[in-house]
Amino acid sequence: MSDLLFHALFAGFGVALIAGPLGCFVVWQRMAYFGDTLSHSALLGVAIGLLLDIDLNLAVIFCSLLLALILVLMQNQKRMASDTLLGILAHSSLSIGLVAVSFAGNVRIDMMSYLFGDLLATGVEDLYWIYGGGAIVLGALIWLWRPLLAMTVHAELAQVEGFPVQRARLVLTLLMALVIAIAMKIVGVLLITSLMIIPAATAQKFARTPEQMAALSSGFGLLGVSGGLYASWHLDTPAGPSVVVVCFLMFLLSMIYTTMRE
Quick check: is 74 in a domain? Predict the structure, then answer.
């Protein structure tokens, strides 16, 4: 039992640490629907992995990155409104994934664990994926921190000043796809975006600088994982949704606190 909890706790901590800073950019640039679209594509990756009998982690990462590239390319063409395009791709990829999974009749899988996460089933191999992918994400964020901040404040002005805005936007979308792919097992396809958005939105109430918000966001994510696992263990509730509920309660408390201070 102790190994089960430790693996789940370390996995959740790893995801919280990388989802925090990345979630700040999702909140600042209003990319929540991007996250939903990319998370839905993760299930399509699961289906492809099962049908082709390849590693599910690799299949999910490949599918998520591919859809991220398609999203960026289609957005650059500006032939369709962004929300319409994202809605089409989100629901289509999720539906195609569910249909494709039905063809893998000889493989028994728990769809609920993919949709809502199975944090307590995390193993050592999952930890390697989470911390390996997390190191790549954090390294890329540190490398592109200034261009991403400049793009967030004013994209056109950042481009005039010589920042690689298009490259930064592409990398940010790919990083979102990578985080969603490696974190899918923690809170599931339907909840992963919330783990990026809610701690960042909570941190926004207290931070005075972008760097403070990134650090606080990771901190609130760690508290959410700890509280969610505690509730799941003692109340026998699903681990992934419990983490999101705790994060949401912290957000409500932050709203009440800031309202009372005004």
Answer: yes
